[in-house]
Specification:
alpha+beta, YbaK protein, single chain, 25% helix, globular, 9-stranded mixed sheet, Rossmann fold, 571 residues
């Protein structure tokens, strides 16, 4: 492609509203343009990179046994009402009416549509399993679109859905899709982790997020120092270290005045005791039932774990009025001693190991000293209810937990019957009995992956595309296009490079050399060939974008040099 004919509007200044590197560079290098908040056009170079990501996705999806199809972006509200998500999805779902006042949604995801198709077309176990995918534009009315393509209101997504008659089949497909995702993100040259995660609004259980490690990530990942274990901080299990049974003498329970000290820090300072010796008591209404949650004072309650442990639909911190009603005190002095039997007490697994602890006395301004479980209070159950902290043991027994931020680029779910049951997606089994299908769901943010690659692969001068995604293989520059000798050599090399199979961008513009070099660095094509003052001697300069290394080579050697450097970059 001759650059003089390419639509490539580069920018010299960083756009004022672009606050992360990928957003800045994709705008400046002319890959994208913003049309409205969270809505972007992909210009020719952006579309080329996007197409390469899509092709990688297609190749790995097809290899994993998935079949490509296309579903409508405009979806009937009735389908979402069948699943129940019309009422629960929230304001992110873009809703509209047609001229006949029928309700529709712009597809945020396609579980309902695909389930309705399979429900209507598949009636026998002999047609299962099925695995289908599409690459399509999705719409979500994000409250705060930000970071360019990383959080938009319109974006490109690959979503796949599998249908099964046996759990073993779902399990096997899930593992194949996980492997396919790992292959996709490896081929995109991303530093990523497959992270145990929560299902959120989509539902189901057993799911992993694929996270690109990045300082601008909005999610916090807990991962092992010595293994491939990784989990979203909301889902990371806590493993207690082996601990000997305490031989500490149990002291007599004592109520003391704490004069306005309410939170853990205030109580710790007032009583001059470390926070890990205090029982933190938090009062919740779980599906409208009272639940008192106990954790150690230096730990934080993980409400996702609490919700999952109790199989709850809604977990809400109790109001002051509800606290007074059930515990006869205001927040700040609550504790587990002498609590009504109507209140369920659930304790984090570390609480039973505490000896002579401190807790609220359910009387404003007072706390208990020397509180011991089983003697002074009991619990209905214990469970892992807290967030992991730095230095916790890795759940797989290898190393300890550390944290990093991550950008979510993919997510795989075992949905089970979350959609197939309410939507009556059934089949006849081998005995002729009606059964409900099990489902899996597998999504990749294709446009988000493009941004994540740009976020990871850049320097102070611009983008640095990996070979698998580069918009062009070689950037050929005629340093002075008005010089007949340079122009003639560059024209010949352009034809030669194309004949050798390189996708070549040829900068034949009548621009200053500095402009051409700046644009070339900004665009980030891996290999650059510069035809300059030594063109008459048959000498050109080759530059490696990633390392900055450059070398003079004869035109006769160029083919072998480019192959050598290409192979080095590939490895």
């Amino acid at each position: 492609m001759r650059q003089s004919q390419l639509f490539l509007p580069t920018l010299r200044e960083v756009p004022a509203d672009a606050d992360v590197k990928s957003h800045q560079l994709l705008l400046r290098a002319g890959f994208i343009r913003q049309n409205a908040a969270g809505i972007y056009s992909f210009l020719p170079l952006g579309k080329k990179v996007l197409h390469k990501i899509e092709n990688i996705v297609r190749e790995e999806m097809n290899r994993a046994g998935s079949q490509e199809m296309m579903m409508p972006a405009l979806q009937l509200a009735e389908l979402w009402q069948e699943s129940g998500r019309w009422y629960s999805y929230g304001p992110e779902l873009m809703r509209l009416k047609d001229r006949h006042e029928r309700d529709f949604a712009l597809g945020a995801t396609h579980e309902e549509v695909i389930t309705s198709i399979i429900r209507d077309e598949v009636k026998s176990y002999k047609k299962l399993p099925l695995n289908l995918y599409q690459i399509q534009t999705k719409f979500r009315d994000e409250k705060r679109p930000r970071f360019g393509l990383l959080r938009g209101r319109e974006f490109i997504m690959k979503d796949a859905y599998s249908f099964h008659d046996k759990q073993e089949s779902l399990d096997a497909t899930y593992e194949r899709m996980k492997d396919a995702y790992s292959a996709i993100f490896s081929r995109c040259n991303l530093n990523f982790r497959a992270v145990l995660a929560d299902s959120g609004a989509i539902g189901g259980k057993d799911n992993h997020e694929f996270m690109v490690l990045s300082e601008i990530g909005e999610d916090l990942i807990a991962y092992s120092t010595d293994s491939d274990f990784a989990a979203n901080i909301e889902m990371a299990p806590v493993v207690l270290p082996a601990k000997e049974i305490s031989t500490e003498t149990l002291l007599e329970l004592e109520k003391v005045e704490t004069k306005g000290a309410k939170n853990i820090e205030e109580v710790s300072n007032y009583l001059q005791v470390p926070s890990h010796t205090i029982i933190k008591s938090l009062f919740y209404m779980v599906d409208e039932q009272p639940v008192l949650v106990l954790v150690r004072g230096d730990h934080e309650v993980n409400e996702i774990k609490l919700k999952n442990e109790l199989s709850a639909n809604e977990v809400m911190m109790a109001t002051e009025e509800e606290t007074v009603k059930w515990l006869n005190t205001k927040p700040g002095s609550i504790g587990p001693v002498a609590v009504s039997k109507e209140v369920k007490i659930i304790a984090d697994q570390a609480v039973p190991l505490m000896t002579n602890a401190v807790c609220g006395a359910n009387e404003e301004g007072y706390h208990y000293l020397n509180v011991n479980g089983e003697r002074d209070f009991t619990w209905h159950e214990t469970a892992d209810l807290r967030f992991v902290v730095d230095g916790d043991l890795s759940p797989d027994g290898k190393g300890t937990i550390v944290f990093a931020k991550g950008i979510e680029v993919g997510h795989v779910f075992k949905l089970g019957k979350v959609y197939s049951e309410p939507m009556k997606a059934s089949y006849l089994d081998e005995n002729g009995k009606n059964q409900i299908m099990s489902m899996g769901c597998y999504g990749i943010g294709v446009s988000r992956t493009l941004a994540a690659v740009a976020e990871e692969n850049n320097d102070e001068n611009g983008l640095i595309w990996p070979l698998s995604l580069t918009p062009f293989d070689v950037h050929l520059l005629a340093v002075n296009s008005k010089n007949a000798e340079q122009a003639e050599v560059a024209d010949e090399l352009y034809e030669q490079l194309k004949s050798e199979g390189y996708d070549c961008l040829y900068d034949d513009r009548p621009e200053r050399a500095g402009v051409k070099f700046t644009d070339s660095d900004l665009i980030g094509i891996p290999l650059r060939v510069m035809v300059g003052k030594k063109a008459g001697e048959g000498i050109v300069e080759v530059k490696i974008r990633k390392s900055g290394e450059s070398m003079e080579v004869s035109v006769s050697e160029l083919k072998s040099v480019l192959k050598r450097e290409w192979d080095k970059l590939a490895n």
